[in-house]
Specification:
mainly alpha; two-stranded antiparallel sheet; 2 strands; about 70% helix; Tetratricopeptide (TPR) repeat protein
């Protein structure tokens, strides 16, 4: 006869059978990490209050059982909230996490691109705007951002190409003061700014067909007088030369011929 060890009147075989039954499993340890309802985070994001968004979405983000779509939405909402609270590093961290989970979110790429652009990271911003348009070619905000950033980069490229170069060709410079300007990038930039302001004032004089101090002849004469004063200042010191040039630039920007 086979013998079985009994515990409280039940054999070991009976206990094992009971443990494997559905009814026994139903009374196992309760779940100590229940799912968090995403509704408060969604509602807070709709209301737009940054503090409420952070408070409502953070538990959803931290909960390891949160479904990926809900986590992505919560991260994007909290990122925007951190951005509004001027906490760019925390905002970028959330954008990175969200886009790492779902790299198809055009709104997320566009929002991160706008933040990167404000921080001066134009290359990263352009990459984000491009990614946004890749996933949603009709994304109007990303399209507008990409266009304006491209124009900005083109302008900066043109300015960089001219940086340290005066308004005249240094290869043909003959006067000593011109050679001194060519040799000093700051003076070269100042000379180019003066010429641009002078040309703008001259165009206004021609368009206005006015007489007196605002006439074309008066504007040209004032520029000739400045050049004479600039050349005379060169014989003293570079600081005096710079001072004469800065004074002329301020005069032109103020709309005065002389």
């Amino acid at each position: 006869m086979r013998r079985y060890l009994t515990i409280a009147g039940l054999s070991v075989v009976a206990l094992l059978s009971l443990a494997s039954s559905p009814s026994f499993a139903a009374v196992s340890e309760p779940d100590d990490d229940p799912l968090i309802d995403p509704a408060p985070c969604v509602n807070a994001a709709t209301d737009g209050d940054a503090d409420k968004i952070i408070a409502a979405c953070t538990p959803l983000i931290d909960q390891h059982r949160t479904a990926k779509p809900d986590r992505v939405k919560a991260l994007l909402a909290r990122a925007a909230a951190f951005d509004r609270k001027q906490q760019p590093d925390r905002a970028l961290a959330d954008y990175d996490a969200a886009l790492g989970l779902d790299a198809t979110k055009a709104d997320g790429f566009n929002a991160r691109g706008e933040l990167r652009r404000r921080q001066g990271n134009r290359r990263g911003a352009l990459a984000d705007f491009t990614a946004a348009l890749k996933h949603d070619p009709q994304h109007q905000a990303a399209r507008a951002n990409a266009k304006s950033l491209a124009q900005e980069l083109e302008r900066l490229g043109a300015e960089l190409a001219l940086k340290g170069k005066p308004s005249f060709d240094c290869k043909t410079a003959r006067r000593a003061v011109q050679k001194a300007i060519c040799a000093d990038p700051d003076l070269a930039d100042l000379d180019r700014a003066i010429d641009a302001a002078y040309q703008a004032q001259l165009r206004q004089a021609v368009a206005g067909v006015v007489s007196g101090a605002g006439s074309r002849r008066a504007v040209q004469r004032a520029q000739q007088d400045f050049i004479a004063a600039r050349d005379a200042a060169f014989g003293r010191s570079k600081d005096q030369l710079r001072g004469v040039m800065q004074a002329r630039l301020q005069q032109l920007l103020a709309g005065k011929a002389d």
